[in-house]
Amino acid sequence: MDRSCGMGLPVLLLLLLALSCSAGALDNGLARTPPMGWLHWERFLCQVDCDEEPSRCISEQLFMQMADLMVSDGWRDVGYQYLCIDDCWMAPTRDKQGRLQPDPNRFPSGIRKLADYVHSKGLKLGIYADVGNKTCAGFPGSRGYYDLDADTFAGWGVDLLKFDGCNFGTLELLAEGYKNMSHALNKTGRDIVFSCEWPLYERPFRKPNYTEIKQYCNYWRNYADVYDAWGSVKNILDWTSYNQDSIVDAAGPGGWNDPDMLVIGNFGLSWDQQVTQLALWAIMAAPLLMSNDLRQISPQAKALLQNKEVIAINQDPLGKQGYRITKENHFELWERPLSGGAFAIAVLNRQEIGGPQAFVFSTAFLGSGLACNPACSIQQILPTSEDLGLHNWVSPLKVVVNPTGTVLLKMVVTEEKLFDNGNKRFPEFL
Ligand SMILES: *[C@@H]1O[C@H](CO)[C@@H](O)[C@H](O)[C@H]1NC(C)=O
Ligand SMILES: *[C@@H]1O[C@H](CO)[C@@H](O)[C@H](O)[C@H]1NC(C)=O
Ligand SMILES: *[C@@H]1O[C@H](CO)[C@@H](O)[C@H](O)[C@H]1NC(C)=O
Ligand SMILES: *[C@@H]1O[C@H](CO)[C@@H](O)[C@H](O)[C@H]1NC(C)=O
After folding, report:
1. What is the CATH code of the structural domain delimited by 22-314?
2. What is the value of pTM for the model shown?
3. Rounded to the nearest whole angstrom, what is the distance from the C-alpha of residue 56 to the centroid of ligand 4?
4. 419 CA from centroid of ligand 2 (Å)
5. Dihedral over alpha carbons 165, 167, 168, 171 (to 10 degrees)
6. Smallest CA separation from ligand 2 atom 3, residue
């Protein structure tokens, strides 16, 4: 297995390699950890009719309500910072000076006012545009206007741009467009996180060059849009593990693979599937962009999304993306190297029939033998928080996982003695 640069090396070397592996990321000082926030698309789509759907249409009111809740309900304080507008915010044409303008019925106060409001709450505003002639929903695209649009967004006080790839034309125009917009954003002098879909649109035709992409983008979509459905989350995980050799090493401080929005708190995922989405998005060092209705979210989904230990794994400063290390029967074992020589471990039960199933594995299998050597303390983080105590490197570890659920663990290596009688969970071993 040669997929992960630095795998199996001592911690100091890992740290040094982490620095060299992340060299070449977009040099704008942003997204040193995966961005966190809220994005309207999956839950609110292109809901434009404010007369028929006043509370669900894409409007300044919707974003102001979400901004209020991000503060009052504790989202901002655990790290969800970017409030992001997706497609369908624009008027159907540019103004007389050629500038993009918001739909006047839905954003009567303008984007500058909305940005001021969002900033007054200690949050940041994200907006959406497209590299081609038209956005995916048919609104004006940015081709031919990259500098003007970047200046417009900077002038409004926008902090993040999601740049879609619909109607991109040729592959050359696609690549040039993303590069030119990246330069245009830089030239504005404003800190603007740049979210790309370049590899998603390129991949059907040729292999994306991630060395190049990460020089221009802070994060990038690789695969299809997430839906509010287990089948969609499963497909994203399968795609990611299948392609991990080519994408995992691209991730690092400043540039991240984006498996798309968190759909937790909506309609389509069971509790266990919501746990799986958050656990695996943490393992994948994914941007955590929720798409849900913060006005109506269950306390359980809210507590899950605000779980500080999971967020800490997602935001780990080492910035290495995790990967699947094995698939046995219907279990998948994933790990993510963390700072300080710690590891996050996810055990996913892919069986969709029956009840909870036990999975037994050796800690010697993790971190190329280093995660629990000579010993480690293990904390279960999801689905519930539980101290699993000290283990040594040959301890068999047993977890019980619900169908389509995940057990997320954090292992911290210790210098404890090899044979630890305090390990009461596995007396059968000694
Ligand atoms: C789309 O963009 C290309 C490249 O700028 C341009 O040549 C073409 O005329 C545009 N097509 C339409 C339909 O606007
Ligand atoms: C990108 O910028 C270069 C240099 O200004 C220009 O020649 C090229 O036409 C631009 N490409 C696109 C797609 O805008
Ligand atoms: C623009 O790019 C330069 C050089 O890559 C970098 O030092 C600077 O921080 C960037 N500025 C912004 C606003 O992104
Ligand atoms: C990928 O991009 C990098 C940086 O632009 C370049 O040095 C390298 O040659 C490219 N690789 C391929 C296979 O084209």
Report:
1. 3.20.20.70
2. 0.92
3. 44
4. 64
5. 110
6. 180
